[in-house]
Write a structure and sequence with these properties.
Helix content: 55-70%
Oligomer: single chain
CATH architecture of the largest domain: Up-down Bundle
Shape: globular
Number of domains: 3
Number of helices: 36
CATH class of the largest domain: Mainly Alpha
Strand order of the largest sheet: 3-2-1-4-5-10-9-6-7-8
Structural class: alpha/beta
Radius of gyration: 33 Å
Largest sheet: 10 strands, mixed
Distance between the termini: 84 Å
CATH topology of the largest domain: Na+/H+ antiporter like fold
Strand content: 5-15%
């Protein structure tokens, strides 16, 4: 009986309380029937009719409508995205086209009842607000995908290409506005905002879509891919800054009033970079784990995101600019950005962003272009957009030294509009700058220019296929330029260069350069001097079985000409000799090394036109004036060899003390693949755990010979005894400076060192 006690209690409770509930409901129903009979309110509909009425009301409820819309939208964008993938187009094309299909241009035109049921006018505000949240998150992701360090490192040529394409397309946009203004704008429209906005809409490029196309085609790992990404990033930053200025002018009502808005925007940008960015970096540095982000930290970063968007919205330059800038100032740690992006990417790109495509489609009435002359105007807009963006960037790319094939590919990719164009167009429509007719034309232009990117790239590759095969035979060769002063230094540098290409000489090219300082007009005895210098080099090359091309010149400025020859020859690696650190004990000399830019203003001004990333890095490094000039003006990695009696290359020590040391992995790979060396990687900052590129390099080294590679973390102390067992230290300039700051004596007593710059 005891074991049935719980069952009896449970059954009794159910029976008693069920009876009570039934009695209460029955009594209440009898009272309701009496009341209905007295007042004549008795229901004349059947139970089935009541059910249908309630069902109809529930279907029309705002939440039910929104949920159904999300389901239909997600299905549509997945289907059209899949179709586009099958025909070789990026999925974003299908997502944009899905929006147009679900809008009044197709669904609303052929199935108006279905369109009214799915997208009633009263529900559009819900889609708009949700899509705006999606756009804010999307622009935040776009900002985080921008790598300012990469932009600075490749900004010289990319800036020319990007801004040329913007200026040409902007001018053509203003020209189009001139012809459209009289008949295709609102009666109260002002020409200046309309012209400026058409210029922006014509000149913007789609950074995210471009990045996706480059990745899908495998261009991202090539120098061309890096150039295109940098061009697109600069294009995005410039276009959004211009758009912010145009929005300020439109909302302020005049250029003079807009100056106050722009001034507030400048103050806001300064605060974001000078105050908020360091604050966020400190928070990111407090993270204990490299694989997870705490909820409190996520909360802080989301707070910064929405506060930034709110600030720009009330300033008058649109919330999307604030979201974009919030992404740009996020901590630069690769792993941190990757983790944070994963937190919001699925919700933003998969769920909320498709709502924006459909919202744009619902506002796009292609049926308004119902006369031939309107389609002619639309064709003219497309023509101007293609010419301005593609030809402008292609000609600029050719001007800065790219091949015709690469230049045309840059032009085709820069012509991609995609989602960014739709964002801009919606802003223009909301502000009353664009009429529905012009909006429809510009949406068609965005679709056409984005759709034509992949076919254009395929056509260019097909046309240049034979030429590309010939060029690849040259481009595949790894080209090293070795600049040396004395024959003794030249032999050591030749030995070092050989260790990077020993087993792959067929795919390599080595040039030994000796520059003699003198009068360019008086070169008596040059041939004899060149022969004397290179005799010793030829002996060393013979013993190493290494082919090389000798180069001898008399120049006025050796340092500047070394960099000039290296850049003109398009070398992959420049190797030079260097005496080492400025003596730490000599305070005045160290100070002069630091203050060199102040004491040599003309040369400093010249170097300002060189590689900005390298110049900023070497500014604080204790390099002599000549070395600093070479490094700052060279467009390729530079290796500075400090010889302390290098005889053999058996044990290589590689310290990694800076997050930008990813490029060192390529040099480790080359050493492992071409020379029988033991590599010891000291990685106290955990780059081998955080960087995908660096991890690939480590795996490639292990694949050659896992027994000749070892990885150390911060737990292993590095002292003079360990370094003295090494034949060579392979280290980046930043890590070299960091290690010297930590322990100057350690570096002073270190063996031969090859210092690398990226």
């Amino acid at each position: 009986m005891k074991k049935y006690k719980n069952l009896i209690f449970y059954t009794s409770i159910l029976a008693v309380f069920s009876f009570l509930i039934y009695t209460i409901i029955r009594t209440g129903r009898l009272n309701l029937e009496v009341k209905q009979n007295v007042y004549g309110l008795a229901s004349k509909t059947s139970a089935w009719g009541d059910f249908l009425n309630h069902l109809h009301e529930d279907l029309a409820a705002p939440l039910a409508v929104l949920l159904l819309q999300i389901v239909v939208i997600l299905l549509a964008v997945r289907i059209f995205g899949w179709i586009c993938q099958k025909i070789g187009q990026p999925t974003v094309i299908g997502e944009i086209f899905a929006g147009v299909v679900l809008g009044p241009s197709l669904l609303g035109y052929y199935f108006p009842n279905a369109s009214e049921f799915l997208f009633p006018e009263s529900s559009l505000d819900n889609i708009r607000f949700l899509s705006n949240i999606g756009l804010v998150l999307f622009m935040f992701i776009v900002g985080m995908e921008l790598n300012l360090k990469t932009i600075r490192s490749k900004a010289n040529n990319a800036l020319i290409i990007s801004h040329t394409s913007i200026f040409v397309a902007f001018t053509l946009g203003v020209l189009a506005a001139y012809f459209l203004f009289e008949n295709y704008t609102h009666q109260t429209a002002v020409f200046l905002p309309f012209a400026l906005f058409m210029g922006i809409a014509m000149s913007i490029a789609a950074f995210p879509v471009m990045a996706r196309i480059i990745h899908e085609r495998g261009i991202n790992k090539t120098p061309l891919g890096a150039t295109i990404i940098t061009c697109a990033a600069i294009d995005d930053i410039t276009a959004w800054c211009l758009l912010a200025a145009v929005i300020a002018i439109v909302k302020a009502g005049s250029v003079a009033s807009a100056l106050f808005v722009i001034l507030l925007a400048v103050i806001y940008v300064i605060l974001m970079f000078r105050v908020v960015r360091p604050f966020l970096k400190r928070i990111a540095d407090m993270q204990i784990s490299n694989r997870t982000i705490s909820k409190s930290v996520i909360g802080v970063f989301f707070l910064v995101l929405f506060l930034s968007a709110y600030a720009t919205e009330i300033i008058g330059i649109h919330a999307l600019f604030g979201a974009f800038l919030a992404g740009v100032i996020m901590p630069t740690n690769y792993n941190f950005r990757n983790l944070f992006t994963e937190k919001i990417e699925d919700v933003a790109l998969v769920l909320l962003l498709p709502l924006f495509f459909v919202y744009t489609g619902l506002r796009t009435h292609i049926g308004l272009l119902n006369e031939p002359h309107l389609w002619i105007i639309c064709g003219g807009i497309i023509f101007l957009a293609v010419v301005g963006k593609s030809m402008g960037s292609a000609l600029a790319a050719r001007f800065v030294g790219n091949s015709w094939k690469d230049s045309l590919m840059i032009g085709a990719l820069m012509n991609t509009r995609g989602l960014m164009e739709l964002v801009v167009l919606n802003i223009g429509l909301d502000l009353g700058i664009l009429t529905p007719e012009v909006f429809a034309m510009m949406v068609v232009m965005a679709l056409v220019t984005t759709f034509m990117t992949s076919p254009l790239l395929s056509l260019i590759e097909k046309v240049f296929k034979k030429k590309q095969t010939d060029e690849n035979q040259v481009e595949d060769k790894y080209k090293i330029l070795v600049s040396f002063k004395s024959a003794k230094t030249g032999r050591k540098l030749l030995f070092l260069a050989n260790s990077f290409i020993r087993k792959k000489q067929a795919n390599s090219e080595l040039t030994m350069l000796h520059l003699s300082e003198g009068n360019l007009l008086y070169q008596y005895g040059v041939e004899e001097e060149a022969e004397e210098v290179f005799d010793s080099i030829k002996e060393e090359a013979h013993s190493l079985q290494q082919n090389f091309t000798p180069m001898f010149k008399v120049v006025g400025d050796i340092s500047t000409n070394v960099a000039k020859i290296a850049n003109k020859g398009d070398y992959d690696f420049l190797l030079i000799g260097y005496k080492g650190f400025v003596d730490n004990n000599n305070v005045l000399e160290r100070f002069l090394g630091f203050s060199n830019k102040l004491l040599h203003i003309p040369n400093y001004l010249l170097m300002k036109f060189g590689n900005q990333k390298k110049w900023s890095r070497i500014l604080l490094a204790p390099l002599d004036e000549n070395t600093r000039t070479i490094v700052s003006k060279s467009d390729m990695p530079v290796g500075m060899f400090i010889d302390k009696g290098l005889v053999s290359m058996r044990n290589i020590f590689v310290p990694i003390l800076d997050e930008d040391d990813i490029f060192v992995g390529e040099f480790m790979e080359r050493l492992a693949q071409n020379s029988y060396v033991r590599i010891t990687l000291w990685d106290p900052i955990g780059l081998a755990d955080n960087s995908i590129e660096f991890i690939k390099s480590v795996k490639a080294i292990k694949a050659v010979n896992p027994y000749l590679f070892q990885l150390w973390n911060n737990n292993i102390p590095v002292d003079s005894d360990i370094l003295n067992k090494q034949d060579l230290i392979l280290i980046s300039l930043n890590s070299w400076k960091e290690l010297d700051d930590r322990n100057p004596k350690l570096m002073k007593d270190a063996p031969s060192t090859l210092v690398l710059t990226n």
